Amino acid sequence: MVRPPAAPAVGRRETLSTSSRAGFQNPISEEAKSRFEDALAQYLWHTPRRRSLAQIGRLLTTEGGYSLRVFTSVAREHSLSVLNQTGGRPQVWFSSRAKFRKYLPRHLGVIERLSALVHLMGGDMASIEGARKTWVPVETALEHAEELAAIILDLAA
Predict the structure, then answer these.
(1) For the chain, what are the domain ranges?
(2) Chain-centre distance of CA 4, in angstroms?
(3) pTM for this structure?
């Protein structure tokens, strides 16, 4: 199996920037973004796990991006972003494993599953700390949408 090159870990400020300099060089096609969102929706919103669904919220942001979040009473804003896409970038972004462990301490096994899946897709949640993030190509994330949705539902349980 040929693995894509490892995704770089970047600081939060750089990750969330919407300036023309930060990430618009290779914009994601609307079709690819839409296919990924549709695939996640198929697995997340059409599930009998209604209790988990109540803990998941999709927050729209500027520049065509979004953040898929789960409820946690530990975080100041009472939610944690599981994944996000910003500003037309062709990547799906994930927070560090350390951040997930801090804000979802009851879900350590699920966090390890997410970290392993992100690693399989070419990212590295394990070696980054704090508010840093890692990314995977959206096309690769699309191939694993069902697995991602199952993990998101488990994080929200």
Answers:
(1) 38-156
(2) 18
(3) 0.74
